[in-house]
Amino acid sequence: MIIDLRSDTVTKPSKAMLDAMMQAKVGDDVFREDETVNQLEARVAKMFGKPSALFFPSGTMANQTALKLHTSPGDQIICDKFAHIYNYESGGASFNSGVSCKLIEGHRGMFTAQQVIEAINPDAYYYSPTRLVEIENTANRGGGSCWDFNEILKIRKVCDDNNLGFHLDGARLWNTLVVKKETPKQYGEVFDTISVCLSKGLGCPVGSLLVGDEAIMKNAIRIRKVFGGNMRQAGFLAAAGLYALDNNIERLAEDHKKAKEIGEVLTTLAIIKTVEPIETNIVIFELNNDVNEKSFIQKLKDKNIHIIGMGTNKLRIVTHLDYSDAMHEKFLETLQTL
Description:
With 338 residues, the protein is α/β, with parallel strands linked by helices. 41% of the residues lie in helices and 18% in strands.
């Protein structure tokens, strides 16, 4: 039994998902003739109450397209210091859009409207113009933390008052919606653009979507082309997304439950220094100073259990739909022997 808890991206399509993919009606999406892609885009746009959605091969490309749509070279983006767009997209913000990031010292990947106000550059020619505020929900480096929606509304007002765009990296927004009992339309009413991922948590092999208001999304398909993201018979992938939306959202609660149970066991271990609060499917914990991170990971690997290190003795565990009850039981037993 191999137990892979490095990420919720390691899942394989289920037989039912593969069957749905094989039955997809496809066409050339560059000509906008793939009816399954069109169906997925229309469905996700409607979910968020937005006029437009565009299918992308990756969440990074969807985010990078959003940054490009909101900004011009030399502009500045406000985001958390742990933001995916800053840390894990290969410097794409500067490479693709020529923008810099004003990093906020948030709490578990989240910040306040007041911190946004303080981060906006003065209106002087020797400052980069602030153009966009970006948040990530759930916040990956925050341990799958979920934003307070009231704070999001306050940030929206700051954006309105200062003529700033507002983008949501919602790679794991589905997890937030399940935990907080919120709806996609609530988010669609607040953000100018939203990226959502189908291959994190929902079990799809590939795919993200960018949704947004008509004016800003008008140029999205051209930017996707510039980034090399046009696809042809992409309906085989889009069909997986439609299946996931029908079958794999509510079950995220199972992943959250298992993550919390893992956290409960970790807190009992003498070698663990801290376990960060667990809201969704991500568990971040810190080893004691006298425990070697690489040795700890290798000890688990020798037992066919894979997790990921984050540096400075912090590690991450992510539960997902391919992490079965039997795997969970085995993992908890193994942790208690360490």
